[in-house]
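> forwarded from #structure-qc
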């Protein structure tokens, strides 16, 4: 009987430790927003292309600035292993220049960026470079980088 109590005590202690590890991981993971994008492209500049920013964490954020930048296609960049934007990069397709925006993306919510009229960008088969959206938020110093459109429209 004493052995059973000892085994149950050890199982309970181990289960409590595993629960603590999961809670610590959840706390660490939920400190920052987890953003991803969904795109809706159109060739009509009057309607414009829409980029929907989805937040799948409980922490909200504010987008302060964003740019669209073109980089040569690379397998490493598309997989997220080499997301470097060189200094003096002159392939910026859209920038706010001196302006700042305030796009609220609440926890488990979404925000929207629309590119219409003069801001409309090419996204189809004529595209020769990959197009990335770089987003600066209130919760991170480094920007988020998202692949928006691949070269060749694929």
């Amino acid at each position: 009987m004493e052995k059973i109590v000892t085994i149950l005590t050890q199982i309970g202690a181990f289960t409590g430790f595993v629960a603590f590890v999961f809670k610590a991981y959840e706390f660490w993971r939920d400190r920052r927003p987890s953003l991803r994008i969904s795109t809706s492209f159109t060739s009509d500049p009057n309607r414009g292309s829409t980029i929907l920013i989805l937040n799948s964490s409980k922490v909200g954020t504010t987008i302060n600035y964003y740019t669209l930048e073109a980089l040569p296609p690379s397998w490493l960049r598309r997989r997220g292993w080499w997301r470097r934007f060189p200094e003096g990069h002159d392939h910026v397709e859209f920038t706010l220049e001196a302006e700042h925006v305030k796009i609220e993306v609440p926890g488990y919510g979404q925000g929207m960026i629309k590119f219409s009229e003069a801001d409309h960008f090419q996204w189809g088969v004529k595209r020769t470079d990959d197009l990335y959206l770089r987003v600066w938020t209130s919760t991170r110093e480094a920007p988020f980088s998202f692949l928006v459109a691949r070269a060749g429209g694929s």
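QC bot note: The longest strand covers residues 61-71. The first helix runs from residue 2 to 29.
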